[in-house]
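Board notes (copied after class):
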Amino acid sequence: MGSFWRIELLGGLRMIRPEQTITRFQTYKNGALLAYLAYYHNQPVSREQLIHLFWQNSEMEAARNSLRVALNSLRKQLEPLEISPGTVLVANRMHIGLNPLAIETDVDDFLRAVTKAQNTSTPSESIEAYLKAIELYQGELLPGWYEDWIVAERSRLTEFYVAALQALVQHFTKIQRFSQAIDYSLRIIKADPLRESAYRNLMRLYVATNRPSHAIQTYHQLEEELRASLNIRPSQGTRELVKR
């Protein structure tokens, strides 16, 4: 059985199949429930766990009813008339999950590419896999959503993304393709505006390409970010770098 749906969570929540894309859900919690089930689709989740996550402030009977209503709404979207009930959304009295044979996710594809890059035997295969990973990373995990599990996983995936970009920066710097190295350095800063090492590396790349004014602008950008967010100055090493 091929996948009926591709569920994307990077850069926003989307349900995709060849003839249809869904980005709107009946309620916010319906979308959050789908996102959770899709992210953890390789493991069924207990009804009690879902109630604790999404309806912990409700009385138990009301929470159970809210879960049933949300599941019915999601089933209508996941299993329209041409898809048999229970094919995608699998539920019994104890557990709920999405059939891993019926869906695929961009998060899974991204993590597979990262894992391949980290475990390939040749540098060229590793770079190819890292390029695939950053192509798949369409943005941070579920931007604008702040459930605890999302915040934690967002940070973890961002670190994988930044590590992929760093590997590409090192590769393209080594072979003196500085424009690509600069592009990936800028992406690191966009993903993590407080990562001082990325600014330092970008400054060195600008100097290597005879653009000292860009290096100084990069330093001032770092200075402003650190002051606004953490009320600190760049490290001594970074300050000395800009004086050279």
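Comment from the instructor: The two ends are 61 Å apart (CA to CA). The first strand starts at residue 5 and ends at 8.
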